[in-house]
Design goal:
Largest sheet of chain B: 7 strands, mixed
Radius of gyration of chain B: 26 Å
Strand content of chain A: 15-25%
Helix content of chain A: 40-55%
Strand content of chain B: 15-25%
Oligomer: heterodimer
Strand order of the largest sheet of chain A: 3-4-5-2-1-6
Distance between the termini of chain B: 50 Å
Number of strands of chain A: 11
Order of helices and strands of chain A: EEHEEEHEHHHHHEHEEHEEHHHH
Helix content of chain B: 25-40%
Structural class of chain A: alpha/beta
Number of helices of chain B: 21
Shape of chain B: globular
Largest sheet of chain A: 6 strands, mixed
């Protein structure tokens, strides 16, 4: 019996509508986990989709098709979501966390349609082109995300995997020839280097996290510069306690907003300043840390004498002068509303550019596979490299196949090439 | 002279031919083996050894199917070594040093035992073809030998050329005028033909070697046989010796490189990377000032020594000079100079998985002609061709070897799907299910299946059945016996304080204890024969990995099950690139799974292939 698969059916990125398709025997059960039941077949129904914790993911048009009467011939559920990157991301995450379905491989929907006689040849050919493009795009996208440095990184991973396999294979398949008896010192070094590098890649896959939980934008500035007022103005909601007594905002306040389809978390920091109040000092410290870790910082000022209180300026960070209603050289004013919408456009432009770089369907798969590869290599390292060689090679093979669509397939010939280049073998 | 009609006619008496003829005869076919000389069967034309890593696996599989290579090797074995003894059983391979003469007589005796097998001495000049199918062969004297299936195992006869220095002459087993017509017929079939080369070392006289100063390489003290049916060596056991080339050897070779056939530009064929000539070694690994040479006796009653590691195409006088620069060989006499041989092979992607040529129904090819090297690779193909040639005579379905269950399947799939770029040799690394495809469990994988196919005799089947029952009994004993952490601690096994009681099988599979400890822990286990306990131990070691591999294999099975009809052409399909179409025409994949493994296949092309298969099915329905 086939398993259940899902994928984003529309192009990734910001759009009016994003369609997520689920196909397979669990399709309707998966819909159930979104808190949606009783959707009539072949009728558009507007439903609220909820995540595991009951939070609202989106309000979406849901369509159900029963097996035999669907695109793939299986049970199919189609979710027409708002075309927001964050919404799609959260929904896809939810789907794979259900454990009832997995992300589809390129062409898998079409393949199922074909196996169930749901397609004619002209349709197949049109789709085939798309799939070829998609497969190639996956690799390129993975490399493009991080630019040239990532490309080098990927080649290095590949070379390390091939080398480690070649060393071990040489001692296995050419046991009675002149190969080094113990290749483990080199293999050990290669594997720990590889593991370190893969692990930091997984840890640093921050785009995925930002997309799911929202980008963090920190409001930084001295007390009473107008951080809380700006936040209240944007959110039209009295989330922050606004007063003119310095130190009012002791905790970091979070305010999620939808900014042009992006989920953005504005952080209102405790006024960063030098203080003698211990409690307040904790607040200041925490604020500083959060601000440095945020995706973007908005430095608010109302005079030239302002300092940055230990918060770093990073590329793309914005500096704005507040209180334009009373300061002649101010950029924005929450009293008159002057400049605020321009500021929001600037923020959303900066963040959108980052999203575009992360072709997130690709990244999603990549992160999962990288994580799987890390787990395998970790297992080898945890054993103290004390597994039999043939089992270590088995692990390396599994890790290569996880990394295959990033580093390219590694076949026996690639390994043998390295073996014969490195060792003079043969009787 | 009129020969009686046969079911299967095998051309060539090498390792592929003998195994093919014997297999077809076991299947109940009436078989003719046509060879130049009746004494040809069982001749080892290269080094006097059988088995090794990957190769030993193939021999065990041939043996599990009741083939002859394993038992003949055991009968002729003068030194037995299990390679990789210190590694896990999945990568251990049995290897035997064989007495050439004894091996040949063992093979002859096996052939003689088959009453349905006739050996015909003669030159094959052409194939008989009627109604587009092969129907037999024609001999030099004009006589015809009729057969429903014909298997060509003619080694290097297609365009074979022997090179020694700057001299070359036509050579190869059938490299005489008589084979020209046969070669022309193959060439006329629009098959893709490539060129390969291989080399041999000069053979030395044992009497002329100073053995005293050389390191001896003895065989194992507890020999492991090639065949599941053999118990222990028959012949007296001997040592090999090891010596090394030195900088003087290398100087002689370097100074004469321009006189080497290979470096003098006389040879275009591609040689195997894993079997380089000494010229190659000295040139490509210039920083190494010494290479190992194994001096292998060719038998108990012969003066011939095979110096493994110095194959060459240098002229004879240079061969003598470099040989005599080597320690122990200072006064060595060369009995036969080394030479390189260049030959044509047929791109095996032209073949179906049963090793038949779809272009000429009834014709099968096996061995070196398909681009492989090695006795074991040849014999395994012979077996496959023999079984299928016999099946064809009774209109049976082809016998299919899967790469998930045998090294034979790995080889056949590699050859017919991906082709070769150098002489193909088996390595354990080629098998993605290596942990499951072990030399020790070849019988468990293949013997019962072979009995159903019809190539395994009663005796062998019963022998295996008894072993299988014992292994099962011992396994369930190990699974029912629970071991307490304290029991393990008593036997010196480190256990954590939180460890729970586990079955003996689980403990064995964790690799924490050996068989002796297991037997000491449980009288139920100890009552089984030691060899059975060891087999259960080997199974237990890979138990968890085998389960995982079985799951992977199941996912692949899906594509393997979608057959591509042989009458389906992709030529007119618009969604496929010319390159993919060419490959499909050449390989003629028999399943979508095989198509997927083809070089240059993209997911989209595969989808188009799949859709054509579906459409074809609908048209027929």
């Amino acid at each position: 019996m086939a398993d259940t698969i899902f994928a984003l059916a529309t192009a990734p990125g910001k759009a009016g509508v994003a369609v997520v398709r689920i196909s397979g025997p669990n399709a309707k059960a998966v819909l159930g986990t979104l808190g949606v039941g009783n959707v009539p077949d072949r009728q558009a129904s507007l439903r609220v989709l909820r995540g595991h914790d009951g939070c609202i993911l989106d309000e979406a048009v849901v369509l159900c098709f029963s097996d035999g009467r669907s695109f793939t011939g299986e049970d199919v559920v189609e979710l027409q979501l708002h075309g927001s990157v964050a919404v799609v991301r959260a929904t896809l995450d939810h789907l794979s966390e259900t454990g009832l379905a997995r992300l589809a491989e390129p062409g898998e929907f079409t393949r199922r349609a074909l196996m169930n006689d749901r397609l004619d040849l002209t349709q197949v050919q049109g789709l085939a082109d798309v799939i070829d493009a998609e497969t190639e795009q996956q690799r390129r996208a993975a490399v493009a995300v991080m630019g040239g440095a990532f490309g080098e990184q990927v080649s290095a991973w590949r070379a390390k995997l091939v080398r480690a396999m070649a060393l071990l294979s040489a001692t296995i398949d050419f046991a009675d020839e002149e190969v080094p008896v113990d290749v483990w010192p080199e293999v050990r070094e290669i594997l720990s280097g590889l593991l370190r590098s893969l692990r930091s890649e997984v840890d640093g896959a921050g785009y995925a996290k930002s997309l799911r939980q929202g980008f963090e934008v920190a409001l930084v500035g001295r007390p009473n510069v107008g951080k809380s007022s700006l936040l209240n103005y944007i959110s039209r909601d009295e989330v922050a306690i606004v007063s003119d007594i310095p130190g009012t905002t002791r905790d970091v306040l979070e305010k999620p907003l939808d900014l042009n389809g992006l989920k953005v978390m504005f952080l209102d920091m405790a006024g960063v300043r030098v203080t003698t109040d211990t409690v307040e000092e904790i607040g200041v410290d925490r604020a500083r840390q959060r601000a440095n870790a945020a995706d973007l910082r908005l430095f608010l000022r109302d005079s030239d004498a302002d300092e940055d209180f230990g918060v770093d300026h990073k590329p793309d960070d914005l500096t704005v002068r507040t209180k334009a209603d009373i300061n002649a050289d101010g950029d924005i004013s929450v009293v008159s509303g002057e400049g605020v919408s321009d500021l929001l456009v600037s923020i959303s432009d900066i963040l959108s550019k980052r999203v575009e770089k992360a072709s997130y369907v690709t990244r999603d798969r990549d992160v999962r596979r990288l994580t799987a590869a890390v787990e395998i290599l970790d297992g080898i390292e945890l054993s103290g490299h004390d597994m039999p060689d043939e089992i270590v090679v088995e692990g390396l093979r599994a890790a290569s196949s996880e990394l295959g669509h990033v580093v390219g397939d590694i076949g026996i010939e690639d390994v043998l090439d390295d073996v014969f280049k490195s060792f003079c073998l043969g009787k | 002279m009129k020969h009686p009609d046969f079911d299967v006619v095998v051309v060539g008496g090498g390792h592929a031919g003998c195994e093919a003829a014997h297999a077809a005869a076991r299947m109940g076919a009436k078989v003719a083996l046509v060879t130049l000389r009746k004494s040809d069967p069982g001749v080892m034309s290269c080094n006097p050894a059988i088995g090794g890593l990957g190769k030993g696996h193939l021999v065990r599989e041939i043996d599990a199917l009741d083939g002859i290579m394993g038992r003949c090797g055991d009968a002729a074995g003068i030194q037995f070594r299990l390679l990789n003894r210190r590694k896990g059983p999945a990568v251990q391979g049995p290897r035997v040093q064989a007495d050439r003469a004894a091996y040949r007589s063992a093979v002859s005796a096996e052939m003689a035992k088959m009453s349905a097998l006739t050996i015909i001495e003669g030159h094959v000049t052409d194939l008989l073809v009627s109604h587009g199918s092969v129907s037999g062969i024609i001999l030099e004297d004009g006589a015809a030998v009729a057969g429903t299936s014909v298997i060509l195992t003619t080694g290097t006869f297609l365009g074979g050329t022997i090179h020694i220095g700057d001299q070359s002459y036509p050579g190869g087993r059938l490299g005489s005028d008589g084979s020209i017509a046969l070669a022309e017929r193959l060439r006329g079939m629009d098959l893709r033909i490539g060129r390969l080369k291989t080399g041999t070392p000069p053979r030395l006289s044992a009497k002329s070697i100073d053995w005293a100063g050389l390191d001896a390489q003895p065989g194992d003290t507890d020999p492991v046989m090639l065949s599941f049916a053999s118990k222990s060596p028959v012949l007296r056991q001997v040592d090999c010796a090891i010596t090394h080339t030195n900088s003087e050897t290398h100087d002689v070779i370097r100074a004469n490189l321009d006189r080497s056939a290979m470096y003098g530009g006389h040879i275009d064929g591609v040689g195997p990377r894993y079997c380089p000539s000494i010229e190659d070694k000295v040139t490509r690994f210039a920083e190494k000032d010494s290479h190992q040479i194994f001096l292998e006796p060719e038998g108990l009653n012969t003066d011939w020594i095979y110096p493994n590691g110095i194959s060459t195409s240098l002229p004879e006088d240079v061969q003598l000079r470099y040989v005599r620069s080597i320690r122990g060989l200072e006064a060595a006499e060369i009995l036969q100079p080394g030479y390189a041989i260049e030959y044509d092979f047929i791109d095996p992607r032209c073949l179906s998985a049963d090793l038949s040529l779809p272009d000429l129904p009834g014709l099968f090819l096996a061995g070196q002609i398909n681009g492989t090297t090695g006795y074991e690779e040849a014999a395994a193909q012979g077996l496959v061709a023999g079984l299928n040639a016999a099946r064809r005579c009774v209109d049976g379905d082809p016998v299919h070897f899967s790469r998930m269950t045998s090294y034979i399947g790995v080889m056949i799939d590699d050859l017919t799907t991906r082709g070769v770029t150098e002489p193909y040799r088996m390595f354990t690394s080629r098998a993605e299910y290596r942990l499951s495809l072990r030399a020790d469990n070849a019988d468990a994988r293949l013997t019962s299946w072979g009995y159903e196919v019809g190539c395994v005799g009663e005796e062998r089947a019963e022998q295996y059945q008894r072993k299988a029952e014992a292994v099962e009994g011992c396994t369930s004993a190990m699974k029912t016996v629970d071991v307490l952490p304290s029991d393990l601690a008593m036997h010196g096994v480190k256990v954590s304080e939180t460890a729970k009681r586990r079955s003996l099988f689980d403990v064995l599979s964790s690799g924490q204890v050996d068989v002796d400890t297991a037997a000491a822990l449980s009288p139920q286990v100890a009552e089984w024969p030691e060899e059975i306990q060891r087999q259960v131990h080997r199974n237990a070691l890979y138990h968890t990995y085998e389960e995982r591999q079985a799951r992977d294999a199941m996912a692949l099975e899906r594509d393997e099950k979608v057959a591509i009809p042989s009458d389906l052409s992709f030529d007119g399909v618009s969604g496929l690139s010319t390159e993919v179409k060419d490959k499909l025409r050449l390989v003629k994949p028999q399943s979508v799974g095989q198509a997927r493994r083809m070089e240059g296949m993209t997911p989209a092309a595969l989808l188009t292939v799949l859709s054509e298969v579906r459409r074809h099915g609908r048209r027929k329905a």
